[in-house]
UniProtKB/TrEMBL annotation:
Mg(2+) 1 binds at E405, E412. Residues 178-489 form the Aminoacyl-transfer RNA synthetases class-II family profile domain. The lineage of its organism: Bacteria, Bacillati, Bacillota, Clostridia, Lachnospirales. GO terms for molecular function: ATP binding; catalytic activity, acting on a protein; lysine-tRNA ligase activity; magnesium ion binding; transferase activity; tRNA binding. Belongs to the class-II aminoacyl-tRNA synthetase family. Its EC number is 6.1.1.6. This is Lysine--tRNA ligase. One of its GO terms (cellular component) is cytosol. Binds 3 Mg(2+) ions per subunit.
Amino acid sequence: MAENNQQQEKDLSELLKVRRAKLAELQENGKDPFQITKYDVTHHSKEIKEHFDELEGKSVSVAGRIMSKRVMGKASFCNVADKLGNIQSYVARDSIGEGSYKDFKKYDVGDIVGIKGEVFKTKTGEISIHASDVVLLSKSLQILPEKYHGLKDTDIRYRQRYTDLIMNDEVKETFIKRSQIISSIRRFLDKKGFMEVETPMLVANAGGAAARPFETHYNALDEDVKLRISLELYLKRLIVGGLERVYEIGRVFRNEGLDTRHNPEFTLMELYQAYTDYNGMMDLTEEMYRHVAQEVCGTTLIPYADAMIDLGKPFERISMTDAVKKYANVDFSEVATLEEARKLADEHNVHYEERHGKGDILALFFEEFVEDKLIQPTFVTDHPIEISPLTKKKPDNPELTERFELFIYGREMANAYSELNDPIDQRERFKAQEIALAAGDDEAQTTDEDFLNALEIGMPPTGGIGYGIDRLVMLLTNSPAIRDVLLFPTMKSIDK
């Protein structure tokens, strides 16, 4: 096996040497492709195929990467891939000239070329270009992997996304769809009167979520700062400032583990709307998800893994307490004390820590017994106050808050509140978070005095939503892992 690998490496090395020798020859003959600065492209492959009736017999210019090549004496075929697909070209010596044809025969798979010629259909019915001119625009000095063998290693695919995009059309389609999803969200919110804004990434106080931040040092100010973990607190300041409807789509950073659903840097969408509550946010979220699916996928029936997700019918709405009662047969509305909650946890093998309150234990029950059951879109409402430090209390039950999370296929997809706008209550919540931090919760928030000052200026009743763009893209592209929808996911460095 080792000998076989050594031989393969030797063969590869020889092939790479041949490519460099071809480049040197071109350069010696005054045909250095790297000196070419532009090429006038008139059409892409998909356009030619879709509009063949109009373009047949007409001259077009395309550019792209040679993906396959068949040389047959005085005539050859090559397949060229561009951003929209690929198209075949018929390259004949008599059409492009003897010298150009001699050069063409030396071109390699992976080379980038410009081809000018007439659109026609071969005897087998394939729409093609009859080349009148072929120009080498860039020389590929590496060997592309084999179509069906070289890109099965997901680690290589993620590390070399550029190669992955060349070899796998479905990967390219995923990222095209990702761009369309973000554009669709923007159009939806713009039409609703929301204003897109940008807020700081480097912050003194990383609040707005339960997560451990990345820390760095700002040399110019000689101050330690953090990378933001959320967009929330600055967007709320803008609500205080009277902007009423704001949103941001931006990167946030959380110093946590890597798995199929988590990457330490990811794209978050957060919006805030004055004069509404979490019920209004539920309606808006449902409408937004339905709109984006219909616009990007052409349907609200979305296949994901082994399920068919129906975004077209009304989303289920259930309180966390009722969900735990339904799936775990435990009714926390009848649990009066922390001792009772701990006893139930012990009986059901739910692990908790000394610092956890009754509400924390309710949330742990939910995670253990409910989350993975919520396949179809479900709004889970009325979270305990212990896990909702920025949310308004329910007037009829101050132990619970006006908050919801949207679950689809057992995954949290969105988080939303009736935002807490009482500065006195907010200060007390921050104090509770500080105590939790001191007790060992490294994801607890710290007091943000400037944010409290903003609340004291006065924030109107406000609803807010936050959701990860990456998880939405996973859903709408049927992607099993977050790395499949991130162009350049976080990877451990390869030791050199």
